[in-house]
Specification:
2 domains, 9 helices, binds manganese (II) ion, 43% helix, alpha+beta, 3-stranded antiparallel beta sheet, Transferase(Phosphotransferase), domain 1, binds adenosine-5'-diphosphate, Phosphorylase Kinase, domain 1, 5-stranded antiparallel beta sheet, metal ion binding
Length: 253
């Protein structure tokens, strides 16, 4: 007798697109046996029913499009244990009072990192910042709301988007950075035109694994860098605003 769970796993693993991914080499790296077990558990829980193609194959993680058991679109971010930057991860985790990990176990570091990303997204979501709603973090896998249209086309990063109203988009982003700082007590730490998606004209902030609490020793350095990036990115879009102007908006000076 085939159990429902086994059936789900079979569906998950036999989905053509996963094979397609494996053919392109990244699959063998992404879907090591621990990752497969994690995907299996997530499928049993109903969070991932079908895994479709990769939206992005990044340095440390791949992001896939998927569907949950209710046939709703989800984004599935899977960190590769082999190519993650543990030094960086450890550095950011250590100063974070939410986590108490003293380990050099790579898997544990990644798991904490993914939990951190989940919790940062949740904090941002709860104060009303436009981020993908996080659904679940398990081991090296983060499942979150899919950002894109109903047909399943993912939203493009700001860098690749054509926006007609850069001034308005910048104001919204600065407002998000401000409420992140003031209400969620969080600094993104990796804000750039890669980590801002434009969904139907609206900016959506993603990739919050690196985010730190404002009392983290590097929070100001990261906030300054985030602001520098905004100045540079929007200069390319024809908006001239200084770092100090943005900073005074965020700090209410
Ligand atoms: P990385 O650590 O590789 O930079 P990101 O979280 O920035 O990971 O995701 C990489 C890319 O995947 C993004 O630039 C975006 O194109 C896509 N992406 C990430 N999360 C989502 C999502 N929730 N919905 C749609 N696309 C996403
Ligand atoms: Mn990114």
């Amino acid at each position: 007798k085939v159990s429902k769970a086994d059936d789900d796993l079979r569906k998950l693993l036999s989905e053509k697109r996963i094979k397609g991914i494996e053919d392109r080499q990244v699959g063998s790296e992404v879907f090591d046996s621990m990752t497969l077990k994690t995907l299996y558990k997530l499928s049993k829980m109903g969070h991932i029913h079908i895994l479709k193609g990769a939206i992005s194959t990044g340095k440390e993680a791949n992001v896939f499009k998927g569907y949950n058991k209710d046939n709703e679109l989800v984004a599935v971010k899977i960190y590769r244990v082999r190519s993650s930057d543990f030094k960086k991860m450890q550095y950011y985790i250590q100063g974070d009072p939410r986590f108490n990990v003293r380990t050099s176990n790579k898997r544990q570091i990644i798991n904490t990192w993914v939990t951190k990303e989940y919790r940062n997204l949740m904090r941002a979501y709860e104060v009303g910042v436009n981020v993908p709603k996080p659904i679940i973090a398990k081991n090296n896998v983060l499942v979150m709301e899919f950002v894109g249209d109903e047909e399943g086309n993912p939203a493009l990063p700001l860098r690749q988007s054509k926006i007609s109203n850069p001034q308005e988009v910048l104001e919204k982003i600065v407002d998000y950075v401000k409420i992140l700082y003031k209400d969620a007590k969080l600094v993104h730490g990796d804000l750039s035109s890669y980590n801002i998606l434009i969904n139907d004209g609206e900016p959506v902030i993603i990739d919050m694994g690196q985010g730190v609490l404002v009392n983290h020793p590097v929070s100001m350095e990261l906030l300054n860098r985030d602001i520098d990036n905004l100045v540079k990115d929007f200069k390319k879009l024809g908006i001239h605003i200084t770092k100090d102007e943005i900073k005074s908006k965020i700090m209410d000076l």
